[in-house]
Amino acid sequence: MTHYTKLKNHLRKSKTVIATVVLLFTAHQLNAQAPGYMGQRFLVGGYVSVAPALFNYNANMKQSFISFNFRKTIEVEYVASRRVAIGLHYDFINVGTQNEYLNESEDIAMRPTPTEDQKFQCVLSRAPGIQIKLFKTESKGALAPLGNYFAWNFSLVKYTVWNLKKDDYSTLTRQVFESDGSKFLIGMEWGSQKIYFDRVVLRTGFQLSLLTGFGGESPEKDYMAAQRIAYAASFNIGLSLIVPYHQKVN
Amino acid sequence: MRKQFRNAVLLLCLLSFCKITAQDFKNDYQPLKSVNPIPKDFLQLSSEKFEADKQTISKEEKARIAKNKTEFLLSSNFSNDYLLASGKILFNDPVTVYCNKVMDVLLKDNPTLRSKVRCYAAKSTSVNAFTTQNGIIYITTGLIAQLETEAQLAFILSHEIVHFENNHNINAYVENREIERGKGVYRNQSFDQKIISKSKFSKEHETEADTKGMERFLKTDYNTDNLDRVFDILQYSYLPFDDVEFKKSFFETEFYKFPESYFSEKINPIKAPEEDDETSTHPSIEKRRGLIKDKLAANAGKKTKKDFIVSKDEFTNIRAISRFELVSEHYLDNEFEPAIYVSYLLLKDYPDNYYLQKTISRSLYSISKYANNDDKSKATEKPDNIQGEQFRLYNLIDQMKSQELNVLALSYNYNLSLKHDSDADLKTINESLLKQLIMDDDFNKDMFRKEPRSAYIKAAQSLAAKDTVKKDEKMSKLDKIKSQKTEEKIALDTTETDYFKYAFVRNFKDEKFTQLYDKFVQDNEDKQKKKDAETDAQRKERVKKESAARSKRNREITKNGYSLSAQKVVVVTPNFLKADERKRQKIKYLASEASELDYTDMLIKDAALLDLKMEILSQHKLNQNDAERFNDIAFLNDWIDKRFADIDQEISITDRLRLNDLIKKYDTKYFYWGGVINLREKKYFNYVYIILMIYTWPFIPVYAYLLAKPQYETLHYAVVFDLEKGKVAMTNYRIMKKNSTNDVLQSNIYDTLHQIKKSPKKK
Question: Are A152 and A106 in contact (CB under 8 A)?
């Protein structure tokens, strides 16, 4: 077993450890009597990240500069102090759009035609992660969970890519790699949160990401993942709801 | 018979009421307070008043004129209400009641007009009376303090009534706008000509008010003989109400005598101020005097000559009240020398009045504190431009150095505290001054502690003997001579630089003083010893540790905020101001008032979420019978203004009794002053985006967004005072480059209240 596989297995097991650490930290912070938004500190919601193909060189670039990749995320956020909010999120990454390059004329002759499903999921990933938002910009009225923030994102990306070497031209089928790949996605985000009707949070932000770690098993797979998952820059917009749980202040 | 009996009872009740309301100035004075019921003027929202007034603008007016009138009504209603809410305006108090009685006399033939105008007393040192568009006449206590007769007051009121009757305020505003814009006859006028035009128009109004006011006045039975003196009062309004020599003996005791050089023989003579008749808003005093004389000459046949129609006693009473009010107003405005001088003048009539003595004590204490902090110029005025007898007081204080002022304040205050030993404020001042004196860098130990100390004791013993003998009058001639010699010897033992070294001879007879003195000296010596024993390295280490502890605390506050553990807080006059820098009329009055009401509701809502008990002391939350709360607001606002004025001076609070009452009444020591200022800013660099649009065209949408995006700045502030300590318990200022949206406000309010409620972290 390679070091890589050992580490990967270890990480799989450590999901529970990470979750426990987060929960313990959260429980500890509950005593910190952070104000939150009118005493409410849990947010549940989701957002969509849009990465213009301009910033993320991939298949779409062959079509037009004005092409986008989308990533959908659901998240739970917890206001840990006046300046810090911690979020757990789960990303659904589908790189590839309706302008999927395999449909182009020169490829049609050469390669299998993907099904409709395949067209939109030429790379499919799931990425659980943690986000730490720092609301430090006093001049912009930052007071967690409101106002401008800077955030660190850490995600463990599990992805599936097509193994192009196994394209079967006779049956016009293609297969995925035998094993899923895993990568770390580290992101930095600058954003802003506004609250409407004392309940609805509108989030807008800009994120820079870097995919890293666990390389070496299959350079081709890594290359494809890096090329397609790595959102060099993305804009996001989303909505969350503030959970109406009000913490008593002593 | 029954009717007669009822009338007699009513009369008795009335007389007893008058007796209760009339103040006895002999021993003390209770500052003026408003009395229930609160008039509608104080309770109605400014926006409602504005909407009602707007209906009075004729639809036939030119659009431009109508717009100007609307603008005026908006700003005047809000400015007027700001004044009404300040606590400086009184209602149903003796001064207001009396002025309204005089108005009744003036307008007895015109009940319609009488129902439209009302008078309120304004606590102010300025000598002034003015009218608002909606019929309120304000008359300052500073003016009443200077008047000689009721007839003079009646003349001033009749002048003000004309301003209201003839809509002078609104007409002046509209005309001024026309002048500023160069419309009509003002077209092509230069800047200077416009100023003169404005002045001329204003003078016309004043002349009309004088003339018509005099006509109304002449219809009454008031005496016209002393009207000329009203103009003298106005001309010399910058002087106190009397000009009496300030004698140095006022501050001196038998062992505490000022050097002769401190009291100048010469004073600056009183000169009538020069008037700039061309640009002034009022005609010159001489012109007004001449006009009145002409009018009077035309009515020379008038027979009745009454200086007082309502009541001479009542006038004397309200004038005395107004003079007492001057004392507190000067003190509150940090005008300590006038406060002392006016108290000095009043003490001539009421030598045992404790209120006056205490104000002098507090003023001297403040001057001493400012001087000790090298800020004497902020608390005192140079005597060069001071006219009249008050010059001597200004000159004395000007010549005294920090330590001398400290001795003076302590000497006066301690001697006062001997007569009023239950007053906690005097005790606080004594301790503060004594500590300051001993901690003073120039403090001469030998002067107060060593040799002079024994001299003090000797002198004190001799004085004690002298006093005892004096009481039974059995002192022999030789004892008397001996005692006199001791006194002389001590008196001779001083120079100009240490003339004050025996100031406390008598006080050293007092065990409390001696103990306090010894305690502070000991503390000082211990501190000094500790300091001397410390090596340079240790000192640096200590300073470093102290600095680190301060930084840690500041970091903690920045991170988690304060933790006051309060169960209740009183919010005093929450405030919201919205302004637009781009507009000519910058303050958005209507939006400000609406936002203020919302802000108050948010405070209540967030306090409820936090289980924090809250009381709002705001003009908008009062009902008709809340005069008591109105008075509390007035006192608290005065108090906070004073605290902020003295914030750098470490002046101890000297309103302990009233503050304790408030703490007890509202069941909390935490009082919150807070609000929001929201400004829509002018964007000065839009042209940069336009240039960038040309050179970097792909980013046009970004620039278009930046151009269109409004620019705001919002300040949310909250200061929580601990009234028990008289110190700021918490400050929360946030300047944000964004609009004051609901979420931003809610978040900030909750955060502030959360810090008030939460307990410190358990370690």
Answer: no
* Pairing verdict, β B568-580 and B613-617: parallel
- For A200, nearest residue in chain B (alpha carbons): B743
The rounded distance, in Å, linking the Cα atoms of B45 and B594 is 10
Which residues of chain A are within 8 Å of residue B614 when distances are taken between CB atoms?
Answer: none
Instruction: Give contacts of B734 with chain A, Cβ < 8 Å.
Output: 138, 141
| Pairwise CB contact (< 8 Å): B738 & A83 | no
- CA–CA separation, B227 and B220 (whole Å): 14
Nearest CA in chain A to B752: A35
Residues contacting residue B718 through CB under 8 Å, at least 6 positions apart: B672, B673, B674, B730, B731, B732, B733, B752
> Residue A250 and residue B737: Cβ atoms within 8 Å?
no
Tell me how close the Cα of B562 comes to any Cα of chain A, in angstroms. 11
The CA-CA-CA angle for residues A98, A104, A107, to 5°, reads: 125
CB B442: neighbour CB atoms within 10 A? Answer: 9
B758 phi/psi in degrees, rounded to 5: -70, 155
Q: Closest-CA residue in chain B for A194?
A: B743
A173 CB-near residues (< 8 Å, 6+ apart): A112, A167
Q: Closest approach of chain A CAs to the CA of B391, in angstroms?
A: 51
Instruction: For residue B373, give both structure tokens.
Output: 């902090």
What is the C-alpha to C-alpha distance for residues A66 and A98, in angstroms, rounded to an integer? 13
Whole-angstrom Cα distance, residue B556 to residue B763? 14
CA B627 – CA B516 distance, rounded (Å): 42
Report yes or no on whether pTM surpasses 0.80.
Answer: yes
In this prediction, the answer to ipTM > 0.85 reads no
Mean pLDDT, contiguous 10-residue spans, chain B (763 residues): 49 41 79 94 93 88 87 91 92 96 94 95 94 93 95 94 90 80 72 70 82 90 85 89 90 84 85 68 76 77 80 95 96 95 95 95 95 92 92 94 92 92 91 89 62 55 54 56 52 68 79 87 87 87 92 85 93 95 90 95 94 94 94 93 85 86 96 96 87 86 89 95 91 91 93 92 67
Q: Please tell me if residue A37 touches chain B, with a CB cutoff of 8 Å.
A: yes
> Rounded to the nearest 5°, which phi and psi values hold at B670?
-100, 120
Do A141 and B757 make contact, defined as CB atoms within 8 angstroms?
no
**Are B561 and B756 within 8 A, CB to CB?**
no
Residue B438's contacts (CB-CB under 8 Å, 6 or more residues apart) are: B517, B520, B521, B524
Residue with tokens 């001993």: B438
Q: What DSSP line would sit under B624-692, residue for residue?
A: TT-HHHHHHHHHHHHHHHHHHHTTTTTPPP--HHHHHHHHHHHT-SEEEEEEEEEEEPP-S-HHHHHHH
Identify the helix (H) or strand (E) that includes residue B360: helix B354-372
B178/B59 Cα distance (integer angstroms) = 19
Residues 385-424 of B with CB under 8 A from A: none
Token readout for B590 is: 């209507």
Residue B471 φ/ψ, nearest 5 degrees: -60, -45
Q: Which of B181, B231, B233, B238 is nearest to B206 (CA)?
A: B231
Does residue A33 come out as left (phi exceeding 0), alpha (psi in the -120 to 50 range) or beta? left
CA angle B303–B309–B315, rounded 5-degree value: 135
In degrees, rounded to 5, the angle at the alpha carbon of residue B726 between the alpha carbons of residues B724 and B728 is 110
- Edge-to-edge, what's the strand order for the sheet holding B136-140? B118-122, B136-140, B129-131
User: Residue B14: CA atoms inside 13 Å, Cβ hemisphere, count?
Assistant: 6
Pairing of strands B568-580, B670-680: parallel
Identify the bridge partners of residue B670 per DSSP, sorted by sequence position: B722
What sections of B496-572 are H helices per DSSP? 511-533, 536-560
The tokens describing B55, both together, are 């209906």
- Find chain B residues with C-beta within 8 A of A139's C-beta: 735-737
Distance CA B242, CA B707 (A): 63
- Dihedral angle, C-alpha A110, A114, A118, A121, nearest 10 °: 30
